[in-house]
Automatic annotation (TrEMBL):
Domain of life: Eukaryota
Segments traversing the membrane: none
Alphabetical UniProt keywords: Nucleotidyltransferase, RNA-directed DNA polymerase, Transferase
Keyword Nucleotidyltransferase listed: yes
Lineage: Eukaryota, Viridiplantae, Streptophyta, Embryophyta, Tracheophyta
Protein name per UniProt: Reverse transcriptase domain-containing protein
InterPro entries: DNA/RNA_pol_sf (IPR043502), RNA-dir_DNA_polymerase (IPR053134)
Source organism (scientific name): Tanacetum cinerariifolium
Keyword flag Iron: no
């Protein structure tokens, strides 16, 4: 046959409705040294008689799309059951647990029973977080040698922000995450940032401290697509 080429390929037979007789992947195109162009709708490959060009037609595309749409098997729209919200601990009614609505009544009852038997493993309030023993892990400031401590001048806060700071600090003190220090070398004013729910989030300005600490180098993995 003139203007043709031959190549050995492994084909997989799939029982599926499709408007196409066959789909050739990249290894097959490489085997026949074909160069496709989706922009021009053309495919070129070499033969003994020369370069062969195959041009596509918009009619073929429309026919394939029509067959593909008409042969598609309609699927029933499955409605997912709504999730259930329950309160496990009566002492903390505002802390709710969301359970999937697809569970059966038996599975839901067993899950509720399991969660209520293990209420002590959940942190219902900040004081329930025991933290990590200092013998296991301890934080220290890696200050660059020769950097003097920086102590910011105390700045006043508005009444609304002051109340938010006091509430946040009280929670941290009760949880033993923060304790009062009288002889601190580094002192930074709190920075209040308003969240989406209009409440205040207390942050700390580490600008001076970051300048005094050496930068850590975190290597990034090689990315092929650049």
């Amino acid at each position: 046959v003139t203007h043709s080429t031959k190549a050995w390929m492994n084909f997989m037979i799939v029982k599926s409705l499709s408007p196409y007789n066959g789909i050739i992947r990249r290894p097959g195109l490489k085997a026949i040294q074909a160069v496709p162009s989706t922009v021009h709708g053309m495919l070129k490959f070499p033969t003994e008689e020369g370069i062969v060009t195959i041009r596509s037609s918009l009619l073929i595309h429309a026919e394939c799309a029509s067959v593909d749409t008409s042969s598609a098997t309609p699927r029933e729209m499955m409605t997912r059951p709504a999730n259930l919200t329950i309160t496990l601990y009566p002492n903390f009614p505002d802390q709710e647990v969301v359970v999937g609505g697809s569970l059966s009544d038996k599975e839901r009852t067993e899950l509720f029973s399991l969660l209520k038997k293990n209420l002590d493993i959940f942190a219902w309030q900040p004081s329930d977080m025991t933290g990590v023993p200092r013998s296991v892990a301890e934080h220290r400031l890696n200050i660059r040698e020769g950097c003097p401590p920086m102590r910011q001048k105390k700045r006043g806060q508005a009444l609304e922000r002051t109340k938010a700071i006091q509430a946040k600090v009280q929670k941290l003190v009760e949880a033993r995450i923060m304790r009062e220090v009288y002889y601190h070398d580094w002192l930074s004013n709190p920075v209040m940032v308003k969240k989406h729910d209009e409440s205040w989030q207390m942050c700390v300005d580490f600008t001076d401290l970051n300048k005094a600490c050496p930068q850590d180098c975190y290597p990034l993995s090689e990315i092929d697509w650049k």
